[in-house]
Amino acid sequence: MAFFHRSSRSKNQSNESIKNGVQLITAMHPKSPISEQFRTLRTNINFMAIDSPIKTLALTSANVSEGKSTVSNNLAVVWAQNGQRVLLVDADLRRPTLYRTFDLDNRQGLTTILTSRDHTIDLNEIIQPSGIDNLSLLPSGPIPPNPAELLSSHRMKDFLAAARERYDMVIVDVPPMLEVTDTQVISHNLDAIVLVIKQGQTQKLGAKRAVELLKLAHANLLGYVMNDVEGDGGAGYGYGYGYGYGYGYSSNEDDK
Ligand SMILES: Nc1ncnc2c1ncn2[C@@H]1O[C@H](COP(=O)(O)OP(=O)(O)OP(=O)(O)O)[C@@H](O)[C@H]1O
Ligand SMILES: [Mg+2]
Fold first, then answer.
1. Which ligand is nearest to the CA of 16?
2. Does residue 32 form part of some domain?
3. For position 236, what pLDDT does the model report?
4. Is 31 inside a domain boundary?
5. How far apart are alpha carbons 130 and 123 in whole angstroms?
6. What separation in Å is there between the alpha carbon of 113 and the centre of ligand 2?
7. Is residue 28 part of a domain?
8. Which of 11, 16, 211, 249 is the most buried (most CB within 10 A)?
9. How far are the Cα atoms of 50, 112, 130, 137, 207 from residue 204, in angstroms, in the given order?
10. Does 121 map to a domain?
11. How many domains does the chain have?
């Protein structure tokens, strides 16, 4: 069953993280330069939250396989390592990875909450521990045929509000902007969005279009993370992360 053309998918699509999860460098090597870069990213996001607190944050990208799951998972780990109570949510209902990364049971998850008839469903029964202090996890749950509909539901809004109350930080892994409308439909219910850009892979036009779509959706786009893969992209230490503010909302940026 396909609701969108697979042929339109990026030739850079990788299914590695869908099969095996993402690399948790920040948990395995907390003293590495990469982990330090994630801590810098955390600090930068905190700095941008001075006027209005950021407690629900999603990571998206223009296309598939640009590093959303890798960045959101590692960012959640460094936030938890800082002593804050963090909930990491897998809202990529098309290409979920969280249950693989943390080896979780995916029979219950976000979709259980969104489809349950029981409005008093206890989040504690669905949210799972991660094995990392302060970090709780909500896997995707069974994949539904109507992800965009579920993510745009009142249930999703209510869930985010409830999670916001319980945790210091809720980090949400969402699908890419140019593939499906899922992220557009939930972005205005989140405090902030960060765009992941993969150096050498994300095209300038694609990134611009993603920014335009976020703007149309009234999302609070904080900036972008440059996910810079050196070498063949397979090596654990081929990471490099930068953080920039280049993609603001000014539409006369034209061809920067
Ligand atoms: N900086 C990096 N260095 C090396 N490999 C990376 C880097 N970032 C991501 N990868 C690899 O690229 C692949 C895609 O990354 P990831 O799953 O995080 O992207 P995604 O945007 O969540 O993808 P999807 O669209 O499938 O959800 C994975 O195999 C991951 O291990
Ligand atoms: Mg992903």
1. 1
2. no
3. 32
4. no
5. 15
6. 21
7. no
8. 211
9. 30, 37, 36, 33, 5
10. yes
11. 1
CA pseudo-torsion sign 161, 163, 166, 169: negative
| CB distance 240 to 38 below 8 Å | no
Distance from the alpha carbon of residue 171 to the mean position of ligand 2, in angstroms: 13
- CATH code at position 73: 3.40.50.300
For residue 17, report the distance from its CA to the centre of ligand 1, in Å: 7
pTM of the model: 0.89
Name which residue sits closest to atom 16 of ligand 1, judged by CA.
Answer: 67
Domain that holds residue 55: 38-245
Q: Which residues of 24-41 are buried (b: 16+ CB within 10 A; e: fewer)?
A: bbbbeeeeeebbebbbeb
- Rounded CA-CA distance 90/104 in Å is 12
Q: Mean pLDDT in runs of 10 for the chain (256 residues)?
A: 43 89 95 92 88 93 94 97 98 97 97 86 93 98 94 94 96 95 94 92 92 95 81 38 43 38
Residue 229: the pLDDT is 57
Cα–Cα distance measured from residue 218 to residue 51, given in angstroms and rounded to the nearest whole number: 18
Q: How far apart are CA 36 and CA 132, in angstroms?
A: 18
Residues in contact with ligand 1 by the CB-under-6-Å rule are 14, 16-17, 22-23, 61, 64-70, 92, 95, 97, 176, 227, 229, 233, 238-239
